[in-house]
Design goal:
Largest sheet of chain A: 7 strands, mixed
Oligomer: heterodimer
Structural class of chain A: alpha/beta
Helix content of chain A: 25-40%
Low-confidence stretches of chain B: 368-373
Radius of gyration of chain B: 28 Å
Distance between the termini of chain A: 65 Å
Number of strands of chain B: 6
Number of helices of chain A: 25
Distance between the termini of chain B: 93 Å
Largest sheet of chain B: 6 strands, mixed
Strand content of chain B: 5-15%
Mean pLDDT of chain A: 86
Mean pLDDT of chain B: 86
Order of helices and strands of chain B: HEHEEEHEHEHHHHHHHHH
Chain lengths: ~750, ~375
């Protein structure tokens, strides 16, 4: 007999949560268990200026009033101010831009709007939402997505006739701006530009996007339009600042007075118990999550689980399906969802989640962004998603407006996760991280100045970013890339510059990764040249979309790495001999500084590290030349007096341990991936003449991490010390300073001594 | 660090070694742009149709002209551009527009060349004014390349568009169908060599043109432009000669003189079929079937048999199919299946007709199964 699992009830969830909190199963794993109270909605009437047909259509859909934040956004936009809307998932952000855009089009059929979403899937979803809203209104509205999937024969019609064009930053960069002469109607009449999910436009990607927006505004000015920008973002610490960097000049208003209602919610952070105290090894987060999600699913409670990679998503899905075998349970009770699934498959899952036929879903962060899947009862996060903002986005997927919901973060054994397990307040109480961008990174500026020259000749008096624009332009002219004539710089090369600039990487000088196993070789990815020696040296295990590949040959000269898929139980970790030369010190404080540096890295050996247990199971030599990276770095060092108080061997081990520790913790504060940061520990650095730890931006030119670390250095050191003290290992483990076997005996205590002196 | 030092370390800021000549700025072009005009006699190009007999609307349509067909050759502007790249987009300039028109019984070639990028707006204004005189044009791949680029320039500087292509005869498409099988290429230069039998010598390869122009901009050396102008002039002349050649072939085929080349005949049959000229179509198919190689014979057999059947010559249709099936070793399974099924159907019809003829013998002869005409 099939078990009927389609009867969720508040009572059930309540009882289940109670049992989990107080019962035997979970209690020793609970780091934090918090009850967020329910909150009532706050409403405001629709503004009088809003097109009557729109107000009527809203009323027909049961929306008699707006939430306060929606009204606030509408009023600011009506007054011609740009806005950045920062409210949680499912708070009705979409109406904040759909309403003014529809209003403008209803009043002037020539008006145009451009929507920019970070992913194609999101664009499709928003298209459907806008069409639903426009459906009941007697307004002619032609809305199109314009991206890589748009058939060539449809493009001409979209360019001329589309009222709302929905696209992504990459397409704007390569497909729309360089061809602006085909989009005259759009650019002449552009009233609104919507940049949704602003928090995703940070780091290198965000720095590129900010430059694309600069180019967009330049084209608009050329065609005589001055669109109003609407940014929306998940909760981050600096929405106004981030939006400002993307917008440039202009009035900008923050809308964050969320008026949407919330049901009561349990939020908990869980840490699987230690299974091997000596090595500091904890139980698998994945298995822990399976048991947790399984309990909710058995009770018929709609549950979503988030994993950090595609591979873990598939694994968890397999585990859960094993838990609920067919035919006792419906075959589609638990579904997977990730990039790589076919679009209509995804749509079917989204529909199933909305109407309740799909009871459980295991997803990568693909479902984190605003795709409409309705609200679920329980969200289980396997591993810290990397940022506080993502955590709240994913946790926000559970949360009904009237009833109880619950969200759990299950920590893995990575340093960041263990830091959060010991400091739950970092996720739950602290405001989210700041989204950092550095659009004025010279590498990026050069690339976008070239793209801009292709779009319209630069005039001598033009300014683009904070650098000395005329200086860069005249340099490019000397190089023959631009041609100066009549006080203007013209593009003077055959190439199409936007094709050479990928928004997702910083350097134009890349190494492509080529899979040679298929009948026809294919490129599966690319990485920055500087990162290549440690990631794709001969014999390295390269992870791509959670598949393991082994590098057969790295052609350093031509920037190609040839790989083939393998299935092994280890990953590789290269040792780099890194030397830092400080080129320019931007600021100095007591025992710290930041500035421009030249990083020289010589890969020496690689180690094979067994998955999960982190045992060292072998090593090999790497034969590659030294590579250089010019970037920005933050450094902290011990003074002479402090150094003298330490045992000699403790200085060396301690400063190395500190490097590991800071490198593990810093991403928590930077909203970045650990790979975005490099670390170098020097016992006697030429610049400071003292034991020094450098943390540098792993991106040519840097994107602002160094400066940020410099400013928060006191907090960073304090939290690192707390983390070290809270770590249960005996003498170093992968979750704190790294194992003593790698760095030397007494690493934990030596690191602590260094930290205490530094503080 | 100094800006220049920092820029020197950035790969994207590095040129291709073609550095600007610092003195070039002093040697500004004497004029920002020029138009050169050249007059040629129609006889010099040995044209037989173009410029001589009034254009035939059906003929032009058969060659792929869309839009209202002009009534005089003088209304069609032959054009070809040289550009700073093939990618398209707002940063690709048209720096040379070559045009050819037929006026007062002679050929007028004009080359509008831009010497000073800073004066592009005025240049575009001039060529747009000139193009504005025409409502029809002929080109080689102009639908996809030259016209969109020209329109981009006009849109960029004047937010306007062009109507010179209201009727557009793009010879690339018929040329591909007619000649690619034979010549293996549809490049204008190869057709000149293998169809017009007039190989080019000393021609600047098309893919070197953008770089050559940029070198001119950087050095101010005007002598670099003459090979580009020569290339463009040559393309224009080839364009009008190919158009003439196509017209001639169609007219001849209509008059019963089918093309000597079997592939050409086969391609032309499709043109005639589409326009309902069944006799000319059949004759071309016949030529293709008899003169073609085995592969072409297989392709031509079914449409040829069909055209014979429509004409009432079913016996001959049967003979064609039997011949090709007997001779043909090769051919795909599905081709063979359809040829055989067509043959079976024809034989069935013949048998039925024979029975009916036998029953109505007293009044025989009216619509008996025809013998070949």
């Amino acid at each position: 007999m099939r078990t009927d699992v389609r009867t969720p009830s508040r009572l059930l969830l309540e009882q289940l949560l109670e049992r989990l909190e107080s019962g035997d199963g979970l209690s020793e794993s609970i780091c934090r268990w918090q009850r967020l109270p329910a909150r009532a909605a706050r409403y405001a009437p629709a503004p009088a200026w809003l097109e009557e047909r729109l107000t009527a259509a809203l009323a027909r859909r049961g929306i008699a009033q707006l939430y306060t934040h929606q009204r606030h956004a509408l009023d600011a936009l009506h007054a011609g101010r740009n806005v950045v809307v920062v409210t949680p998932t499912a708070s009705g952000k979409t109406l904040c831009y759909d309403l003014p855009v529809l209003d403008a089009i209803a009043k002037d059929p020539n008006a145009r709007a451009l929507y920019v979403f970070p992913t194609k899937a999101l664009a499709q979803d928003q298209l459907a939402a806008l069409e639903r809203l426009a459906d009941g209104i007697d307004v002619e509205l032609r809305t199109f997505t314009y991206d890589g999937d748009t058939p060539p024969e449809a493009r001409a019609a979209i360019r001329n006739a589309g009222h709302v064009v929905i696209t992504n930053p990459d397409m704007l960069h390569t497909g729309i701006l360089p061809h602006h002469t085909k989009w005259v109607r759009l650019f002449e009449n552009l009233r609104y530009v919507v940049l949704d999910e602003l928090h995703t436009y940070r780091g290198v990607f965000g720095s590129h996007v900010a430059n694309v927006i600069r180019r967009l505004r330049r084209i608009c000015a050329f065609y005589g339009s001055d669109p109003t920008f609407i940014f929306t973002s998940a909760t981050i610490a600096n929405p106004l600042d981030l939006a400002r960097r993307h917008l440039g000049d202009g009035d900008l208003e923050l809308v964050d007075d969320d008026g949407s209602p919330r049901g009561e919610k349990i939020v908990a952070i869980l840490n699987p118990p230690v299974v091997n105290a000596a090595l500091g090894i904890r139980g698998s987060a994945l298995l822990f999550a399976r048991d947790l999600a399984g309990q909710f699913l058995s009770a018929g409670i709609q549950t979503i689980a988030f994993t950090r990679s595609r591979m873990t998503a598939e694994l968890l899905l397999t585990y859960l399906r094993g838990h609920f075998p067919y035919p006792q349970y419906p075959a589609d009770m638990v579904r997977g969802y990730r990039g790589g699934y076919l679009p209509n498959e995804r749509r079917a899952i989204e529909r199933g989640l909305r109407d309740g036929t799909v009871r459980g879903v295991v997803s990568t962060n693909a479902l984190e962004l605003g795709i409409d899947i309705g609200a679920l009862d329980v969200s289980v996060l396997v591993g810290y998603p990397g940022t506080v903002a993502s955590t709240w986005q994913q946790m926000g997927r559970a949360g009904r407006r009237e009833s109880l919901s619950a969200a759990f973060l299950v920590c893995t054994s990575s340093p960041v996760d263990q830091f959060i397990a010991r400091h739950p307040e970092y996720v739950l109480e602290r405001s989210a991280e700041a989204g950092l961008v550095n659009p004025d990174n010279l590498h990026l500026l050069v690339s976008h100045l070239k793209c801009g020259a292709f779009e319209l000749p630069w005039r001598r008096e033009d300014r683009f970013g904070t650098e000395d624009t005329p200086g860069v332009l005249s340099y490019l002219a000397e190089q023959g890339i631009l041609h100066e004539a009549d006080e203007r710089y013209h593009w003077s090369a055959e190439a199409f510059p936007a094709n050479d600039v990928s928004l997702r990487t910083a350097s134009t000088d890349n190494v492509v990764i080529i899979d040679t196993s298929a009948p026809r070789t294919r490129v599966i990815g690319e990485i920055d040249r500087f990162a290549a020696p440690t990631r794709v040296h001969d014999e390295a295990i390269y992870l791509h979309e959670s598949r393991q590949y082994q590098v057969e040959r790295f052609d350093h000269e031509h920037g190609k790495a040839y790989v083939r898929p393998v299935d092994v139980d280890y990953h590789t970790d290269a040792d780099l001999a890194v030397r830092i030369r400080v080129l320019d010190e931007f600021a100095r404080a007591e025992r710290a500084g930041h500035g421009e540096v030249l990083v020289s890295a010589l890969p020496t050996i690689y180690k094979k590290i067994r998955l999960y247990t982190h045992e060292n199971v072998g090593w090999g030599k790497i034969h590659l030349p030294e590579s250089e990276l010019q970037t920005t770095a933050f450094w902290t060092f011990l003074g002479e007096r402090e150094t003298a108080r330490l045992r000699r061997d403790h200085v060396e081990v301690g400063i190395a341990g500190l490097g590991q520790l800071l490198h593990g913790i810093a991403p928590v504060f930077l909203m970045c991936d650990p790979h975005d940061l490099g670390v170098a520990s020097e016992v006697r650095s030429p610049h400071t003449s003292a034991p020094t730890v450098y943390l540098y931006d792993a991106v040519p030119g840097g994107i602002g991490f160094a400066e940020r670390l410099f400013r928060i250095r006191d907090v960073l050191l304090q939290r690192s010390l707390e983390h070290l003290d809270g770590c249960g290992c005996d003498d170093g483990c992968p979750s704190c300073v790294g194992p003593a076997s790698a760095l030397g005996a007494d690493v934990k205590s030596a690191t602590r001594e260094v930290l205490v002196l530094l503080r | 660090m100094q800006l220049r030092e920092r820029l020197a370390a950035i790969p994207a800021a590095r040129g291709d070694g073609r550095r600007a000549d610092p003195l070039a700025r002093l040697r500004r072009p004497r004029v920002p742009f020029v138009t050169r005009e050249e007059h040629l006699a129609i006889d010099d190009l040995a044209l037989a149709v173009v410029g001589r007999t009034p254009p035939d609307a059906m003929l032009l349509e058969q060659l792929g002209l869309r839009g209202d067909a002009p009534t005089r050759w003088g209304e069609i502007l032959f054009l070809d551009t040289e550009t700073s790249g093939l990618a398209g987009g707002a940063g690709t300039y048209v720096f040379l527009l070559g045009t050819l028109e037929i006026a007062d019984g002679e050929i007028v070639v004009r080359q509008h060349a831009l010497f000073d990028l800073g004066q592009e707006r005025a240049f575009v204004e001039e060529i747009a004014t000139y193009l504005g005189r025409f409502r029809a044009c002929a080109s080689y791949n102009g639908k996809r390349f030259d016209l969109p680029l020209l329109k981009d320039r006009v849109a960029l500087h004047f937010r306007a568009t062009l109507s010179v292509d209201a009727a557009h005869l793009d010879l690339l498409h018929p040329a591909r169908r007619w000649w690619r099988a034979r010549t293996g290429s549809a490049r204008l230069r190869d057709l000149e060599d293998r169809v017009l039998m007039d190989p080019r010598e000393d021609d600047l390869p098309g893919d070197e043109i953008p770089r050559t122009y940029f070198t001119f901009l950087a050095t101010g050396d005007e002598s670099l432009l003459s090979p580009i102008a020569a290339h463009n002039r040559r393309d224009l002349l080839a364009l009008v000669r190919l158009a003439d050649r196509m017209c001639r072939v169609v007219i001849a085929a209509r008059e019963g003189r089918t093309p000597l080349d079997a592939y050409e005949a086969f391609a032309m049959a499709a043109v005639f079929e589409r326009h309902g000229e069944t006799r000319a179509a059949r004759e071309c198919l016949e030529a293709a079937f008899h003169d073609g190689d085995a592969a072409l014979r297989r392709r031509a057999a079914l449409p040829y048999a069909r055209s014979l059947e429509l004409e009432g010559a079913a016996e001959r249709a049967i003979a064609v199919l039997e011949q090709v099936l007997t001779l043909g070793d090769g051919g795909s399974r599905s081709w063979r299946d359809s040829a055989e099924s067509r043959l079976r159907r024809l034989l069935r019809v013949r048998a039925r007709e024979a029975t009916r003829a036998a029953r109505t013998r007293p009044r025989a002869g009216r619509r008996g199964f025809a013998t070949s005409p």
